[in-house]
């Protein structure tokens, strides 16, 4: 398990490079343009979102449970935004008081958390009243044939913690957050089962 996590962290940026350069980096930039105030990113990984946070973010906290990811994240933080706080925390057990943040960000996280409902409950808890969740997530395909393949491939993707067949939009809508905007798209240059994508904003 430790070797697998270390390898995943080491290869993450390299594996993602094609999609990032083909348009995913721009999707991140557009999403994060709406971040403001005290902002928490859950599952920050190696820090691919870091360069996109605007100046109106007055406090930036990056939560990442994996130690191998955190080491790479710390290097990127030191180069791009040294005042950023890094914490070892997972989505289902955030160590922050209720109503701590104006913005919470999740990108390709809700497909991987063990208990999506619990993670969204924590998001809701740490958001201030009127605070916003910005999300960019893999989702279950609307195409029945692709969805069947997502179901078949889920055990393989689970090796790295991903569940590409989750109906994440429905989970967000059921969490008590009010979805204000949502766009459906695709992850560029990704395998077909990974392509279905949603990006949007939900408010507490």
Determine the oligomeric state from the structure. single chain
Beta-strand fraction estimate:
15-25%
Q: How much helix, percentage-wise, in residues?
A: 25-40%
Report the biggest beta sheet as strand number plus sense, adding barrel if it closes. Answer: 7 strands, mixed
- Our Rg estimate from Cα atoms comes to 16 Å
> How many β strands by DSSP?
7
What is the chain-wise order of helices and strands?
HEEHEEHEHHEE
CATH superfamily placement = Vaccinia Virus protein VP39
Shape: globular
Based on the structure given, which CATH architecture is correct? 3-Layer(aba) Sandwich
Q: Average pLDDT value?
A: 94
Structural class: alpha/beta
Widest sheet: strand ordering: 3-2-1-4-5-7-6
SSE blueprint and pairings:
Elements lengths: L1 H31 L5 E5 L16 E5 L3 H14 L4 E3 L13 E7 L8 H11 E12 L5 H14 L10 H7 L3 E9 L9 E8 L1
Parallel strand pairs: 1-2, 1-4, 2-3, 4-5
Antiparallel strand pairs: 5-7, 6-7
Describe this structure in words.
It is a single chain. The chain has one domain (2-203): Rossmann fold (3-Layer(aba) Sandwich). 38% of the residues lie in helices and 24% in strands. It has helices at 2-32, 67-80, 116-126, 144-157, 168-174; strands at 38-42, 59-63, 85-87, 101-107, 127-138, 178-186, 196-203. It has a seven-stranded mixed beta sheet with strand order 3-2-1-4-5-7-6, sandwiched between helices. The longest helix is centred in the N-terminal third of the chain and has 31 residues, at 2-32. The chain starts with a helix and ends with a strand.
């Amino acid at each position: 398990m430790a070797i697998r996590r270390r390898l995943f962290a080491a290869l993450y940026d390299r594996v993602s490079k094609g999609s990032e350069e083909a348009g995913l980096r721009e999707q991140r930039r557009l999403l994060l343009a709406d971040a403001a105030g005290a902002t928490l990113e859950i599952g920050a990984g190696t820090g691919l979102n870091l360069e996109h946070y605007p100046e109106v973010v007055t406090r930036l906290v990056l939560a990442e449970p994996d130690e191998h990811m955190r080491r790479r994240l710390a290097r990127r933080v030191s180069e791009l935004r040294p005042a950023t706080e890094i914490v070892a925390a997972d989505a289902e057990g955030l160590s922050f008081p209720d109503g701590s943040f104006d913005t919470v960000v999740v990108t390709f996280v809700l497909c991987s958390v063990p208990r999506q409902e619990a993670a969204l409950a924590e998001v809701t808890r740490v958001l201030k009243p009127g605070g916003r969740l910005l999300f960019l997530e893999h989702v279950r395909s609307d195409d029945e044939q692709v969805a069947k393949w997502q179901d078949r491939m889920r055990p393989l993707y689970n090796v790295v913690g991903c569940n590409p067949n989750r109906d994440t939009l429905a989970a967000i809508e059921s969490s008590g957050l009010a979805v204000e905007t949502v766009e459906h798209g695709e992850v560029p240059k990704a395998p077909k089962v990974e392509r279905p994508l949603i990006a949007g904003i939900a408010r507490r």
